[in-house]
Amino acid sequence: MSATVEIRDISKWYGQVVALNGVSLDLKPGVTGLLGPNGAGKSTLIKVLTGQLRPSRGEATVLGQAPWNNPDMNRFMGFCPEQDSFYEHMTGRRFVNALLSLHGYSATETRDRTEAAIAEVGMSELAERKIGGYSKGMRQRIKLAQAIAHDPQVVFLDEPVTGLDPVGRHHIIDLILKWGGEGRTVLVSSHILHEVESMTSSVLLINHGRLLAEGDVHEIRELIDEHPHHVTLTTSDPRGLAGHLISDPAVVSVRFDEETRSVTAETLKPEEFYRRIPILVTQQGVNVDEMSSPDDNLEAVFDYLVK
Amino acid sequence: MPIYDLSYRHWEGSLLGAGRRWMVIAEAGIRLLLSYKKFVFLLMLSWVPFFVQAFMLYMIMVKGASMGFDVSAGFFQNAYAVQLFPLVLVTIYAGSGLIASDLAANALPLYFSKPITQRDYILGKLAIIAFFLTLVYIMPVLLLFIFAVGVSPDMEFVKENYWVILSILGYGALVVGMTSVFIVGLSSTSRSGRVVGVAFIAVVTFAGMIGNLLNLVLRMSQMLALSPNANLIRLSDFFFLQESGLRLHPMVSLSVAALVIAWSLWTLNRRIRPVEVVA
Amino acid sequence: MNEPRHTPPAVDFIRGTKATFRLALPMTLWSRRTLLMTMLAVFLPLAAALFLAVKAIPAAEIRTPGYIFYSNAFQFVQYYVMLVALFYGTAVVAEEVDGKTLTYLLIRPVPRSAILLGKGLASWFIGALIIAPMLTITYALFTLGDGLLYMGNASSFTVNLPTFLSDIALTLGTLAVYTAVFTFIGAFFKRPVLWGIAIAFGWESWVAFVPGLTRKLTVMHYVQSLSQHATGKNVAVALLGQQTSTIQSILSLLVIFALFSGLAAWTFGRREYFFDLSER
Question: Which of A72, A76, A83 sits opposite C4 (nearest CB)?
Fold first, then answer.
C-alpha cells in the first residue's frame, strides 16, 4: 500500500526557533496518532501538510502533490484546526454551508452535503443555533463537520476531542475510527494519550520538533528494553511473594506494601517475568489475586522517550 | 534538631492599599507597551517637533533671529497644535486595544476574580494611555517653556509669560484627560482594537467635516461645535488668551468636552461589569 | 486505497472569487463596521435636509444655490470615501487574522488571490451601497432647494445631472482604488490602521497639494484633476498650478489600482500566518 502522505527531512524554523527538525515519515490510509506535549511541533507539522506553512527545508507531498500554496489539493483534504475560532454570528448550519460553498459544488449538493456532515457529527438538532451560543463540545463538532463535509481523502485533525464530555469524546472517536476504516488517511494530533490509544495503535511520537518514535505502540514498547517494566501483583501474602521474586534473576528490584497487599517488581525482561508468575503460583503455592503493568502503555513509552 | 514547617504559609506582610490597586494594572500595561520597539520608536518620533521648535526658540531668543513670530503664549499654543498628530497616532496605537483586547481574550473574569473593583480596572487602563499621552503631548510643550525660560537673556520673558505654564498644564490636562477617557470608552465597545482605531479616526475626522459643512450650509458658527479640531482651537484660545477668529464660544467647546467624557464614562460603566446578572 | 473517494469539482480563479464574494458579502453587510459607516453617512443628507428647511424660511435669506453647497459637500465625500476604504480595505485580511478564521479560507480549494479579490469586491460593494445613496440623496436635496427654475433654466437637478453622474462614477472609482491600496496595507503590515491613517491623513491629504512631481504619486491628485466641481478645480489651479489631463488621470488611477491589487495578491499569496505562537 503506497503512502498517502510522504515527508522527507522536513525542517521548519522561525528565526532562532526550530519547530521541526529533520522529520521524515509516511502516512498510509487508516488512523495515525500524532503525539507530543505542547510546543512539540504537532500543529506545525500539520500546518506544513495542509499547505499553510512552507517548509524551510525538505519536501512534503500529500496525494502526490506539494501542499504549500496548492489550493487544488484542498479538494481532497480536510482540516480541523485546534483554535476555537468561528464566524460567531453564523449558525452551525450556515458555517458549514458557507465554507462548503467554496468547494465549487452546486447549491443543492452543498446543502445536501452540509446536512450529511452535520448529521454525522450529531449536530442536526442544534445546527440552527448561533455558534456564539454553542458549548465547547458543540463548537468542536461543527469544526469537524466543516472538515469532512466535502468527503476528503485525507483528514488532519488537530486536537479533535479537546473539551468534549466523555459521551461526546466517545462519539467522535467512533467517527474517527469509522473514517479510518473507510480507507481515508486520518492524522489525529493529541496530547491525551489514552484517547489516542483508543483510536489507533499506529502512533508518531514527536517532541522538540523531532520524531522520537514511529509505529505500533506495543512494538515501540518492546524495543525499549533498557527501560524497566514495573509489574504490580496483589496478593494475600505480599512479604512472602516478595521473597520469592527477589531471587528471580529477571527481577531488578522489589517493593511491597502490606497495607495495600501489593508487590511491585521491576524487571528488564518482562516476557520472562510473565512466564515465571504461573510457575510461582502453581509450584510455590503463592497466591496472586491481580496483576497489572502500568508501563505497557503509551504514557510510559512517551515519558521514557522524552526524558 | 528542630524540624521546620515547610508547608504553605500565608503572606503576613503588608498589602497594597485598596486605593492603589489600579497602579498594578497601569504598571503592567505601561511595561507591556514599552516592550514594543515600534511603539518606542513612535514615541521618539513624536519628540521631533520639540527639537525643531527648540531650535527655533534658541535662534529667536539667543541669536536674535527673526522668524515672523515672537515667543509668547501663541507660540506654545501652536506647539500644542503641532503635537496633535503624534497625540492621535499614540492614542490609536496604545489606546485602541486597551479594553478591546481584554474583551477578545475574555480576560475580564480573570481581572475581577482578583480583589479589584470596576473602578480600579478603569482607572488602571486610563492611567496607561494618560501616561503616554502626557509623554507626547504635554511634556514636549512644557519642556519648550522651561527651555525658553532657560535661554531667555533676561527676566522679561518670565515676567510677561509666567502664567503660560498654567495654561500649558491646564489645557494639556484637559486634552489628555478627554482623549484618554474617550479612547478607553471606545475601546470597551468592541473586541477588535483595529475596529476601535478606525472608529476613533472616523468619528474625529467625520465629525469635523460635518461641522464645517453645516457651518457653511446653515451659516451657523455654533455648528462648529461638532468639529473636534474647532473645539480644541477654541479651548486653547481660552487657555492661552488668544483669538483664532472662530465664532464658537469656548463654553460650548467645554460643554462638548464634558459630553464626550460623560458618554465615555457611561459606556465604560455599562460595558465593564464585574458581575453579570443573568436572571 | 489512495484513489480519491470522489472527484470534487475544480475551483478556478473566477469561480473562487464569486464564491468568496458570496461568502463575504453578508458578513460585511451585517457588521458593526457597516453600521458605523452608515451612521456617519446619514449626516450629509441630514445637512442637505437642514439646508432645505432653513432655505424655506424667508428670513434666512439664503440666495446661494444649493448646488454650490453640494459642490462643497463633494469635497468632503472624497475624504469619507478614503475613510470607508481604510475601514473596509484594511479589514479584508486583518479581520480574518484577528479572528483566527483565516485558516478556514486557506484550506479551501480557492486560490489565495481569489480569496483576496472576492473579499475586496464585497468590501467595495458595501462601500458603494453606502456612498451612492448618500451622494444621490444629498444631491437631490441640495438641488431641490434651488426650486424648479435654476438660473432661469430648467431645474438645478436636471441641469447638473451629468456632473452628478460623473461624480458617482468618480466616487465609486476612487473607492475601488483606495480599497486596493488599503487592502495591500492590511495584507502587508501588522498594524494596518496606523499605516492607513498615515497614508490617508498624511500622504494623501498633504502631498497631493504640494507643487511638483510628488503629487503625482497620490490618488487624491488624480481625483481632484477629474473632479468637475469648481471648488476642486480652483484648488487644483491655485495650489498646483497645473492639473493632470482626464485621460492621464484615468490611466494613472487604473495603474495604481492594478499595482496595489497585484501587490496585495502577491503579499497574501506568500505570507505564512501563525495563530498560536505557543505551538511553534
Answer: A76
Write the residue in C32, C87, C196 that is nearest to B190 by C-beta. Answer: C32
Q: What is the pLDDT of residues C26-61, one digit of tens each?
A: 989 988 889 889 988 998 888 888 888 887 777 766
Interface predicted TM-score (ipTM): 0.84
Domains and CATH numbers, chain A: 5-222 (3.40.50.300), 225-306 (3.30.70.100)
C87 contact residues in B (CB cutoff 8 A): 198, 202
Give the best residue of B36, B92, B217, B218 to mutate against chain C (max C CB count within 10 A).
Answer: B217
**Assigned domain for C112 exists:** yes
Question: Is residue C18 one of the residues assigned to a domain?
Answer: yes
Are A17 and C280 inside 8 Å of each other by CB?
A: yes
Residue C275 lies in a domain: no
The chain C residue lying nearest A96, using CA atoms, is: C104
pLDDT (0 to 100) of residue C1: 44
- Chains contacting C (3+ CB pairs below 8 angstroms): A, B
Kindly give, in sequence order, each residue whose CB lies less than 8 Å from that of residue B15, ignoring residues fewer than 6 positions away.
none
Structural domain count of chain C: 1
Give which of C96, C104, C115 to mutate to test A binding, by max A Cβ within 10 Å.
Answer: C104
Long-range pairs for C172-176: beta carbons < 8 A, 24 or more residues apart: C172/C128, C172/C131, C172/C132, C173/C253, C174/C78, C174/C81, C174/C219, C174/C223, C174/C253, C175/C81, C175/C84, C175/C85, C175/C124, C175/C127, C175/C128, C175/C131, C176/C124, C176/C257
C1 inside domain: no
Domain range for C133: 13-56+63-270
DSSP code for C153: B
pLDDT band at C64 (very low <50, low <70, confident <90, very high): confident
